[in-house]
Specification:
Elements (H helix, E strand, L loop, with lengths): L1 H13 L30 E2 L2 H23 L6 E3 H10 L6 H7 L5 E5 L6 E5 L1 H16 L1 H13 L5 E3 H6 L10 H7 L5 E4 L8 E4 L10 H13 L3 H4 L15 H11 L18 H20 L5 E3 H4 L3 H4 L5 H6 L5 E4 L9 E4 L3 E2 L2 E2 L4 H14 L9 H4 L7 H16 L8 H4 L17 E2 L14
Parallel strand pairs: 1-13
Antiparallel strand pairs: 2-4, 3-4, 5-7, 6-7, 8-10, 9-10, 11-12
Helix pairs in contact: 2-16, 5-16
Length: 461
């Protein structure tokens, strides 16, 4: 009687799928599959310094935007230097840190002595004000493109609707103005409608009619271009993605075979309705996994700068049927996406679309992207090259008084309506999204690709 009992225990232990809940196999292949048939789930992240250096500049840019938000609402867009330190502490800055910070960027902030009161004041330079005006003009000029992006975003949702608050948090990434609820949604009733409008947090944006002409993914256009220019095999490129692994990424023999097989797996389009399909089979699970990759790929492609934080992608997880552990899921495809933890002390994870960048620059830049990059250029200018000459000191006498007043007046009106800048959104979100992100360490599992075994770097957990 003891022998059958032991055999039963051995059989139950030999099958690891019996002790794992079915919900864990929704999008990713099981651990029992060999490396030659499935991409490993657990992988070591390889750091790409080009993207990380880009995020270090963005870290300084976000802090500069915070100080600009403190100066612009005041009269004549000037603020006493003594008040600046107190206001900056409300934003998380340390005591006496504000004065040292603005002196690091003389091309953006100017400290001068008031001719009558004889106290120090702080204001923005002409270059910074022109950059703000140029970015605002570029934002208003591309509103028609933003309408198309919002329509495509709603078409990817399973219910054809998204929460207004979730779109508001990510409005900067998708090129939407601060008042997009009025300037985009309400001004285009032929495309959008607002439902459940009793409370602000319960508002939903719903698409009126689905347009088949917009149901074309960015990766499909890339495949067509690659097929026409390089003459690739139609069977191999029909469902493939452009893959460019980071420098130093170790690619083993079995991993290369797994990627080749994964590239040939068919999948449903992110714009396709899959409610009528049976998703319980293994083949359907593989298609759903690849469909999730295509959905995130299309989501990042719709952004202005082809990058978005992982925390903001998590806002659309339920609506677009994405997996729970997004961070771990995207690390399986480091040749398509890159996750950077730089720029905010590891609190935010920025997802880049690798095929859209080359040497830290966007391959197809737009006016809004170029206007935002000008602020980064001002941040990178060396303070040693800054000269406090007559052009910077007396710029108010050169006929730019009206432009400066207009920038400040528009900013003050937005503040009065409660439309705050999105420079604070990234720090407030993420508290209720812990289950959507991987719990592994932000910096501890990075590697530069040197000294690692090729098989260990791609081993399953």
């Amino acid at each position: 009687m003891a022998i059958p009992t032991i055999l039963t225990l051995l059989k139950s232990r030999s099958n690891p799928l019996r002790s794992i809940p079915p919900s864990l196999h929704t999008f990713t292949p099981s651990k029992s599959m060999s490396q030659s048939t499935a991409i490993p789930r657990k992988q070591v992240r390889v750091r790409d310094h080009g993207y990380d250096n880009y995020m270090e500049v963005q870290k300084k840019t976000r802090r500069v935007l915070k100080f600009q938000s403190l100066i612009l609402p005041h009269h004549n867009q000037t603020i006493p230097a003594s008040r600046l330190d107190g206001l900056a502490r409300r934003l998380g800055f340390k005591q006496y840190e504000a004065g040292a910070f603005i002196l690091k960027f003389p091309h953006i902030f100017e400290v001068y002595e008031h001719p009558v009161q004889r106290i120090l004041f702080c204001r923005l330079t002409r270059k910074a004000l022109l950059q703000i005006r140029e970015e605002k003009e570029a934002l208003l000029a591309q509103i028609p493109d933003a309408v198309v992006r919002l329509r495509k975003l709603l078409m990817m949702s399973g219910t054809r609707r998204l929460r207004l608050e979730h779109v508001r948090v990510a409005r900067s990434e998708f090129g939407l103005p601060d008042d997009f609820e009025y300037s985009v949604v309400r001004k285009h009733p032929e495309y959008f409608r607002l439902v459940d409008a009793k409370e602000t947090r319960n508002k939903y944006i719903e698409i009126v009619e689905r347009d088949p002409k917009l149901a074309v993914c960015a990766i499909e256009r890339v495949r067509e271009m690659e097929y026409r220019t390089r003459g690739l095999d139609a069977e191999d490129s029909r469902f493939s993605f452009l893959i460019d692994f980071p420098p130093g990424f170790k690619i083993g023999k079995y991993y290369r075979i797994a990627v080749w097989k994964w590239q040939r797996v068919p999948y449903w389009s992110p714009y396709e309705d899959i409610s009528g399909y049976d998703l319980r089979s293994i083949e359907a699970q593989k298609r759903m996994e690849k469909r999730a990759v295509a959905t995130i790929h299309e989501l990042v492609s719709l952004t202005v700068e082809k990058k978005i934080t992982l925390e903001r992608i998590a806002h659309f997880r339920m609506a677009m049927n994405l997996p729970k552990r997004l961070k771990e899921f995207l690390l399986q495809h480091q040749g398509i996406f890159y996750i950077s933890t730089r720029g905010n002390q590891g609190k935010l994870h920025t997802v880049f679309l690798r095929e859209a960048y080359k040497r830290g620059e966007l391959l197809e830049p737009n006016d809004l992207y170029l206007a935002r990059r000008k602020l980064g250029d001002l941040v990178l200018m060396s303070p040693r090259k800054a000269r406090v000459d007559r052009e910077l000191v007396s710029y108010r006498r050169d006929g730019d008084e009206d432009d400066i007043e207009r920038v400040g007046r528009v900013y003050a009106e937005n503040e009065f309506r409660g439309e705050r800048s999105d420079v604070f959104d990234g720090e407030k979100e993420g508290g209720d999204l812990i289950t959507d992100l991987s719990s592994d360490d932000d910096d501890g599992d990075y590697t530069d690709g040197e000294g690692d075994d090729p098989e260990d770097a791609c081993a399953t957990e």
